[in-house]
Amino acid sequence: MGRGVHGRVIKCGFEEDVFVGTAIVDLYAKCGDINDAVEGFLGMQVRNVVSWTAIISAFVQREDSGSALKFFKEMRREGVEVNNYTLTCVLAACAKPQMMNEAIQIHSYIVKCGFDSNCTVVDSLINVYSKMGQIGFSKLVFKESGSAENAETWAVMISGFAQNRSLGSAFELLEMMIREGLRPNTSCWSSVLSIIDCIYVGRQTHCYILKNGMVSDICVGSALFTMYSKCGSLEEAYVVFEQIHDRDRVSWTSMLAGFAEHGYVDRAFDIFRNMVHEDIKPDPMTLSAILTACSVLPSLQKGKEVHAYALLAGLGGDTLVSGGLVTMYSKCGVLVSARRVFELMPQKDKVSWSSLISGYAQNGYVEEALLQYHEMLVAGMNINSFTITSLLGMAATLTISALGKQLHVPIVKIGIGSDPPVGNSLITMYSKCGSIEDSNKVFDQIEHPDLIAWTSMIMGYAQNGKGMDALRLYDLMRSKGLKPDPLTFVGVLSACSHSGLVEEGYNYFNSMTKNHGIKPGSHHYACMVDILGRAGRLEEAERFIANMSIKPDALVWGTLLASCKVHGDVELGRLAAKHILKLQPTEVGAYVSLSNILADMGQWDEVANIRKLMMGVGAKKEPGWSSL
């Protein structure tokens, strides 16, 4: 339609008019056709500040900062006087960490030309420095701006603190704003709520918002229930959601996403159905959120229903929806459908490609996963931590050390080895492949290892029979001020088991509740039974199981049964097997272990009876095989 109007302009001879020419440039820029926008701009006989700003804005929208700055320099060279809108466009082009020098130069020009008192320019400066992570510069601009009476500037500064996860500073500025007699606007509260991750602080903030009558505002209300969702309080989130009168598509989608991310798939689908019932048409973001719910469960049937709806709504080819479908089918293990959707995508993005690779990797399709990884690289896609950790997980599961080392090379090359998920996956991969020295090297290269990295390294030492090293690393972790979690103690107790440290095992086990407030789970009890069993203290292990604070499961009894096999304790082995078979009647391992104990003792009649029992319940041992 725009091209048709442009043709009419040429036919009527209005193309030389500066206002019409500027409108044409703006039209092509907003439609994403940068080439025609530039052609229209260069064809103008007379250009004013508005037309220059329009073409600069076009490049900013395309995130082409270099071209935007180039045209700004040309504008100044031609002596065209800039205005505040031109400067906000140029500042937006500099909102990248690598363009700090350019931002400072523009800032100097702003001061020189006297625009540093203009509220719009000041707000842009604060926002640009915040996006760069230079919150100190943002504070300096705010302090020197003299905009104490402008609530919008305060809101931009609070938003800057929120972008940099500085909750304390954001609240401090809110309090100062209120003392100055200014009323925080919806933007202030939305920014603060976006970074609250403590339910107690969130509820206090909610009370203040209620007191000031802003809870019915759709922006504030949406930020409130999103905050409750992030804090895991879905019921409170839903109460706030229902209090919003004019719910738009964004608020519906946010509430749906909250239920989906926390695994409440049925509730997410209720939201989806109610949304459609109220004639609010789902967009690609909505469908992506509901597909996430299908992936979390995972539910293939519901995923297919959403797929059908997307096709009927004409959104089946949308990149975001297609990516969600690839992820859903991959998580459900239906890789043929995942691949089919992926191949039909008009534009393949990094997320969908990574999801397909992850699906192949998690289901053990090594060749297909590596082939897609190769094609992703050939297509010029940058690999991310999600892609590489999926492949490393595959290498760890299949204990393919050579594959893990090959994957390590591009990790080092592109510099993502310090990324926590990647570093942790490398540690686990090398540990499971028996290369504990390589695990240690990776761990040492992580500048600030998190709890997962420490735990992975402790587990690695324990699995490779280096119990004392695991315990020394645990002590070092504690000295660094990190608090262990339940998985950390699984590693510590495993280390005690592999090193025969019975009393130390008791001490660590008791410290879980006493010193760290962690309630022992089935894996912790199984570790303690293993410690006692390896030490030959089987009767003590039986008493320990009898005194457990939780009901022993098949894992605990199975651990005792394994120890009975090692030490040839037939009677206790019978007892352990009886409990396992009561919990899992078709558990083949229990039958086989008890049969082996009896066979070692020469009780062949009993072995025959066990075989008959197996046949009676339909338990069948898979025959062993070798690839050699």
TrEMBL record:
Stored InterPro entries: E_motif (IPR046848), PPR_At4g14850-like_plant (IPR046960), PPR_rpt (IPR002885), TPR-like_helical_dom_sf (IPR011990)
Molecular function as annotated in GO: mRNA binding
Q: Where are the PPR repeats?
A: 48-82, 150-184, 248-282, 349-383, 450-484, 485-520
Instruction: Return the Pfam families for the record.
Output: E_motif, PPR, PPR_2
Q: Per the UniProt entry, what is one GO biological process? A: RNA modification
Alphabetic keyword roster: Repeat
Q: Please give the NCBIfam families that the UniProt record associates with this protein.
A: PPR
Q: What protein name does the entry list?
A: Pentatricopeptide repeat-containing protein
Q: Which organism is it from?
A: Thalictrum thalictroides (Rue-anemone)
The major lineage groups are: Eukaryota, Viridiplantae, Streptophyta, Embryophyta, Tracheophyta
